[in-house]
């Protein structure tokens, strides 16, 4: 049976046509009826369809005939954005091959290289393809040379396709059958199933998305999770079409789901190995390298009573997003909440939006920060902090270190000067320039992580007219001269808006932040002062003017003293409101501030 199975995924940079190619595969194999077909069919979340990007990996099972032989094709559609690279790495661990898709108009991009390296590390069969050859701006021959350059093979076979109109798609799918090896593993072995994703179902508990490495599993059997030590009876097994379809069993080489019946979401983790309870495997499968969070922010429920609801929601969301990490924390001003780690700013935005939409939660978000390594005076130990609130007084600090990244930017060589100027502005250290072709270059830099987590990608796109792309990975820790900047709104410190900034740019950062706050905060019936402070010293200020109400509008004449009395009364009222007034900052304002 495994001889007739092919497991593969599609990898590419964002917006290179992965989901569109998956649509053509679904049509070609008749997996989805034409009347039910829609664009980006495998993107199941509303958020994915709205933004036009893939956020979650999505498996689907297809049947295809080649030379009178019937094959089962298990395809996993993967995200392309750097923030969701962990989804890609988990997909690659569950398959034997990958189709590497490159846009004919844009050429090789940063995530093309990053995803290719991930696939090569797994030892997968890789089939390169140039997409969008039907577009007027297609640079087919030039992009072909770029791909051959990164593979180091001048005789490499590269497929030219248009996923939109179907040109060359059937030949590409046939090559996947011919070039990707069948899975290894036998049904006679002890059951070993690798969990590469999971979701929570209120009726059947945790649904584990699995790749069966060896053995066979069916409903009613008792299973054992080798990592968590949990055991349960299987409620149902099935396959993805791409909706969940129950099956009699899952055997070696197949990809499907197991309804575990587990209600505790912490017992079924991505990367764990499922085996038979009575006939356990000798050793678990090697799991995944744990993702390293890059950005940290705290989520607090707008109402204290929703803390437990937020806790349950984060646990269920972690099942579906293994790169999310969180732990409880509390602040006197905000109450109880959770400190969360994310792979990037887009990841943070998506998680906060999913919590709002899927779990009906209104949140207060703290300003995103990176981790910092501290060494205090008179102490031998180093500690790591994840938020500005944890930073002690400067007089107690001996040294503070921040994470640095290895950054690669791919762009046309005409924008080389613009990119270098941008990198110098964020304190980047130039390392090398590598030419993909005579027209395209890879620029390598080292830079502080805090400089690239918020709006660097937008500035890079702006500086290169949208042609540049980037990828980054953690490098090391380096000493920095940093201070904590507090934000006061209406005379009160707002802990959620505090941030850690370089000492040399505190005045510039302070002015920018208070100016942005003035734009996004709602006006009140009283004057609101917004101030930035470092060590108790005010370094920037903006004022939101009070809303005006015409209290004399109904007067039609008479002595001016009547108007004067009403205006004085209004003035006293505003002064009173200012003294007792509390300004509630809406979640939308927090998100706007995060985007600078």
UniProtKB/TrEMBL annotation:
Catalytic activity line of the entry: GTP + H2O = GDP + phosphate + H(+)
EC number of the protein: 3.6.5.n1
> Main location per UniProt?
membrane
Q: Which amino acid positions bind GTP, per UniProt?
A: 15-20, 131-134
Task: Output the SMART domains linked to this UniProt entry.
Answer: EFG_C
Extract the GO molecular function terms from the UniProt entry.
GTP binding; GTPase activity; ribosome binding; translation elongation factor activity
- Keywords for the protein's UniProt record, in alphabetical order: Cell membrane, Elongation factor, GTP-binding, Hydrolase, Membrane, Nucleotide-binding, Protein biosynthesis
Highest taxon of source: Bacteria
Q: Where is the Tr-type G domain?
A: 3-184
Q: Specify the protein's topology with respect to the membrane.
A: Peripheral membrane protein
Q: Where in the cell is it found?
A: Cell membrane
* Cell membrane keyword on record: yes
Any Pfam family hit: EFG_III
Tell me which InterPro entries the record gives. Answer: EF-4, EFG_II, EFG_III/V, EFG_V-like, EFTu-like_2, G_TR_CS, LepA_C_sf, LepA_CTD
**UniProt-listed GO biological process terms:** positive regulation of translation
Could you name the Gene Ontology cellular component terms for this entry? plasma membrane
Family according to the record: Belongs to the GTP-binding elongation factor family. LepA subfamily. Belongs to the TRAFAC class translation factor GTPase superfamily. Classic translation factor GTPase family. LepA subfamily.
- What does the function comment of this entry state? Required for accurate and efficient protein synthesis under certain stress conditions. May act as a fidelity factor of the translation reaction, by catalyzing a one-codon backward translocation of tRNAs on improperly translocated ribosomes. Back-translocation proceeds from a post-translocation (POST) complex to a pre-translocation (PRE) complex, thus giving elongation factor G a second chance to translocate the tRNAs correctly. Binds to ribosomes in a GTP-dependent manner.
Q: Which HAMAP family match?
A: LepA (MF_00071)
> Which named protein is this?
Elongation factor 4
